[in-house]
Fold this sequence. Notes:
Belongs to the sarcoglycan beta/delta/gamma/zeta family. By secondary structure, this protein is an all-beta fold. It has no helices and 8 strands. Among the domains are: 50 residues, no CATH class; 46 residues, no CATH class. It has a 3-stranded antiparallel sheet, with no helix packed on it. The N and C termini lie far apart (89 Å).
Amino acid sequence: GNPLYFQSARNVTVNILNEKTKVLTRLVTGPQAVEAHSQKFEVKTLSGKLLFSADDNEVVVGAERLRVLGAEGTVFPKSIETPNVRADPFKELRLESPTRALVMEAPKGIEINAEAGSLKATCRTELRLESKDGEITLNSAKIKLPNLPQGSSSSAGSRQKIYELCVCPNGRLFLSQAGTSSTCQINTSVCL
């Protein structure tokens, strides 16, 4: 009914040997670290559920949730495969690659949802939406393009705030002050 204590000024080592006295597993508890040497390392709950395991091929986290508390986040030098990436409730989720590209691939599609807030995509050079076999749908009550260039007005006295949305041959969009007929042809210098 009493606890068993192992006490040492340096370390405590527990070895499991085979019949030829070869070490199969070793547990070393020292002043700097606790080390386990074996083919496989497992941590289980009292009921036997696997929480963590590690061997030469893989590391498995069996808990319902993996939480990384470091302020700098988590670094994956190669790739990560997961069915779900989610932030804690009322917390921000950021997927960031400060020096390289960020690639998300899925054969059946990728869904990004912001049920109760906005979604923001920012980049330094070029943002591209591309669909190889389908279409791109902008489905909203309001679609704003606030920084489009404007063509020069053809009539000096006109002060109307109605514009025509024009498309250059290279795909660039611009605004041209609306007239009785299309004014896009007058302002094609914007396309250069």
